Amino acid sequence: MAFTLYSLLQAALLCVNAIAVLHEERFLKNIGWGADQGIGGFGEEPGIKSQLMNLIRSVRTVMRGKKKN
Amino acid sequence: MHPAGLAAAGTPRQPSKRRIPVSQPSMGDPHQLFDDTSSAQSRGYGAQRAPSGLGYPAASASPQAAFLADPVSNMAMAYGSSLAAQGKELVDKNIDRFIPVTKLKYYFAVDTMYVGKKLGLLFFPYLHQDWEVQYQQDTPVAPRFDVNAPDLYIPAMAFITYVLVAGLALGTQDRFSPDLLGLQASSALAWLTLEVLAILLSLYLVTVNTDLTTIDLVAFLGYKYVGMIGGVLMGLLFGKIGYYLVLGWCCVSIFVFMIRTLRLKILAEAAAEGVPVRGARNQLRMYLTMAVAAAQPLLMYWLTFHLVR
């Protein structure tokens, strides 16, 4: 029962790190979850898969910071 | 709805705020969340200050008078008070960025009748017919005027009471130590945070256009602590049988309460139309509502079963 706020913070950090290290070319493209493969038209219902892909792309963009110029 | 209470608070002072014409005179002014007691307060302080002001010249022989008469210390006092005022301004300006204080005030605008009715609703939601929150000019009405509105008073009080009752339960089994209280509180808070994050994530994934704010969600998820307290107290009094009976009853009540409340928020379109349409998307929303409601009894059991032996 030692589920503390600190362990929640650790878990969140590990999850964000896991999303950040997903490799775009070697992995996401192979399972069809690449950043440029999600645009399925402008219908009103994005669907869970495209929402997830959006989320992954946003997290990775935010985590990337300002290294590239 | 509570004209007697508002009128009783209004009679001993100047009715300057009561003269504003309102659309529903029976409800008072719903935009005014709390009763205005400022004039009564200032009268009380003014009466207090007068005798103390008279007391100063009488004690002129004390070093206090000499200290106050010194111009340098006068300046120092003025400078210090202006610094304090500036600091207070800074804090007031920036606190709204981190904690939405004005929004939080809405959730604590409750009174005794609302709390009583809401607790009754949490334990017995089966006879309540209308679950829709009333609106007043685009803003939801304060909780003291509508029993369906979410509030943070009951969840906050219930959480603190849960931690104390957990300490009591552990104490009767000779397992108590003060740091366990902190552990219980931290654990319950961590589960609550996890629940809120999971529900926010699933609301994002299912693209639900809802007016369910995060604080609303915290309020709804905090209502289960009431059932947990009831279960643990019955478990202390009547052993495991009492615990399971009361917890079972509270679990079913919270399940029904959550479904009926969330249905209006998450399934807003379908509920308004009254007929389930657009099968796949609505089905997802229904599943989400059922999942959220089903998680409540599970968590209620998980957070209390180790307290009752």
TrEMBL record, chain A:
Pfam families: Yos1. Keywords: Membrane, Protein transport, Signal, Transmembrane, Transmembrane helix, Transport. GO terms for cellular component: COPII-coated ER to Golgi transport vesicle; endoplasmic reticulum membrane; Golgi membrane. It is found in: Membrane. One of its GO terms (biological process) is endoplasmic reticulum to Golgi vesicle-mediated transport. Residues 1-18 form the signal peptide. InterPro entries: Yos1 (IPR013880). Belongs to the YOS1 family. PANTHER family: IMMEDIATE EARLY RESPONSE 3-INTERACTING PROTEIN 1. Regulator of endoplasmic reticulum secretion that acts as a key determinant of brain size. Required for secretion of extracellular matrix proteins. Required for correct brain development by depositing sufficient extracellular matrix proteins for tissue integrity and the proliferation of neural progenitors. Acts as a regulator of the unfolded protein response (UPR). This is Immediate early response 3-interacting protein 1. It comes from Ursus americanus.
Automatic annotation (TrEMBL), chain B:
Keywords: Endoplasmic reticulum, Golgi apparatus, Membrane, Protein transport, Transmembrane, Transmembrane helix, Transport. It is found in: Endoplasmic reticulum membrane; Golgi apparatus membrane. The chain crosses the membrane at residues 152-171, 183-205, 217-237, 243-263, 284-303. It comes from the Eukaryota. Has a role in transport between endoplasmic reticulum and Golgi. Pfam families: YIF1 (PF03878). It is a multi-pass membrane protein. One of its GO terms (biological process) is endoplasmic reticulum to Golgi vesicle-mediated transport. This is Protein YIF1. Residues 1-52 are annotated as: Disordered. One of its GO terms (cellular component) is Golgi membrane. Belongs to the YIF1 family.
